[in-house]
């Protein structure tokens, strides 16, 4: 099967490209600068913010993966909406049979942050051209190089104590990057996933404070002292975050805004269509640390039934 990945050079895209290639698919990596692309797959020029570039990029592909987001831009909601609309329409014109999108968890009944609401709206924008969209919705993805995980790792590494907002007691359901990629690859072979949205998560439902404490334990560090402060605003939190981690202020603000929303699996239908046991949070943390250190090792769930 010939597949296109929009966002192939990103945290998820690099791993997905390798997994799809290993599975025997022909993979094209859509990039603004194909001459400089050194990743997996065959580079093709394309940019979701340049609609004229999309027809040639999408031509000849049966399925297109959409892993694009613009969190580092102040106008990311508008930019992501425009990019998704253009991509969905161009995919329809090119005869693409399906789009697979990595979205975000979050309950539609909640007052979702701009970030999570945008991720949900992109699902609809991609479908406007008429191509069926399969959406895999994930919360925090644990893996070396992922922004949310790097934020956690660096906070745990740099600070023995933290003054944090109340969002440290918001529930989340983290998932290992290898398991996200496994879902994204597996939905290709399950026709029942076409045109549907699925929640994915690991086996552990945790609050952010517990995530940091358990990461500290896996890293062999002392237990953190976490002091919640109700009046610590998202703006102040993001500026503080940019001082103690390498997460830029705009991205940090978008992530922190989202941390007031619970991001847990509400419907586990994907587990029956793509049956395997995702790895635990502690195992995912250890794998991320091993990857950062360049240590080889099997994926704990790679051979799970």
The unreliable regions are 299-305
Please work out how many helical segments DSSP would assign: 11
Termini Cα gap: 25 Å
Per CATH, what is the topology of the domain at 2-139 and 176-201 and 265-275? Rossmann fold
**How many individual β-strands?**
13
What proportion strand? 15-25%
Return the CATH architecture of the domain at 2-139 and 176-201 and 265-275.
3-Layer(aba) Sandwich
Verbal overview:
The protein is an alpha/beta fold and 305 residues long. Helix 7 packs across helix 11. Strands 3-2-1-4-5-6-11 form a seven-stranded parallel beta sheet, with helices on both faces. Strands 7-10 form a two-stranded parallel sheet. The chain is built from eleven helices and 13 strands. Helix 1 links the parallel strand 1 and strand 2. The protein has a domain of 175 residues: NAD(P)-binding Rossmann-like Domain (Rossmann fold, 3-Layer(aba) Sandwich), CATH 3.40.50.
List keywords for this structure.
305 residues, alpha/beta, Rossmann fold, two-stranded parallel ribbon, 39% helix
How is the secondary structure organized here?
Blueprint: E1 2-6, H1 11-22, E2 26-31, E3 42-45, H2 54-58, E4 63-66, H3 76-93, E5 98-104, H4 114-127, E6 133-138, E7 141-142, H5 147-158, E8 161-164, E9 171-172, E10 175-176, H6 177-186, E11 197-199, E12 206-207, H7 208-218, E13 225-228, H8 234-244, H9 249-258, H10 270-273, H11 281-293
Parallel strand pairs: 1-2, 1-4, 2-3, 4-5, 5-6, 6-11, 7-10, 8-13
Antiparallel strand pairs: 9-12
Helix pairs in contact: 1-6, 3-4, 5-7, 7-11, 8-9
């Amino acid at each position: 099967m010939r597949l296109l990945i929009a966002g192939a050079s990103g945290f998820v895209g690099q791993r997905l490209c390798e997994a799809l290639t290993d599975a025997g698919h022909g993979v094209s990596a859509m990039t603004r600068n194909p001459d400089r692309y050194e990743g997996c797959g065959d580079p093709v020029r394309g940019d979701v913010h340049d609609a004229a570039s999309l027809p040639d990029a999408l031509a000849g592909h049966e399925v297109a993966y959409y892993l694009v987001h613009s969190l580092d831009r102040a106008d990311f909601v508008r930019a992501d909406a425009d990019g998704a609309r253009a991509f969905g329409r161009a995919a329809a014109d090119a005869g693409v049979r399906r789009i697979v999108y990595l979205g975000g968890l979050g309950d539609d009944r909640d007052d979702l942050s701009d970030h999570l609401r945008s991720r949900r709206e992109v699902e609809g924008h991609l479908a406007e051209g008429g191509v069926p969209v399969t959406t895999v919705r994930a919360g925090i993805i644990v893996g070396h190089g992922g922004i949310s995980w790097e934020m956690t790792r660096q906070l745990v590494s740099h600070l023995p104590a933290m003054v944090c907002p109340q969002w440290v007691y918001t529930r989340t359901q983290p998932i290992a990057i290898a398991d996200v990629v496994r879902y994204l690859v597996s939905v290709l072979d399950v026709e029942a996933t076409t045109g549907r949205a699925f929640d994915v998560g690991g086996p552990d439902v945790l609050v952010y404070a517990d995530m940091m404490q358990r990461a500290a334990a896996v890293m062999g560090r002392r237990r953190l002292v976490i002091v919640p402060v109700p009046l610590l605003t998202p703006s102040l939190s993001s500026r503080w975050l940019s001082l103690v981690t390498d997460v830029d202020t705009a991205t940090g603000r978008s992530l922190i805004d989202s941390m007031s929303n619970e991001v847990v699996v509400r419907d586990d239908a994907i587990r029956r269509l793509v049956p395997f046991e995702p790895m635990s949070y502690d195992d995912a943390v250890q794998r991320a640390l091993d990857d950062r250190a360049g240590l080889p090792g099997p994926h704990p769930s790679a051979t799970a039934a």
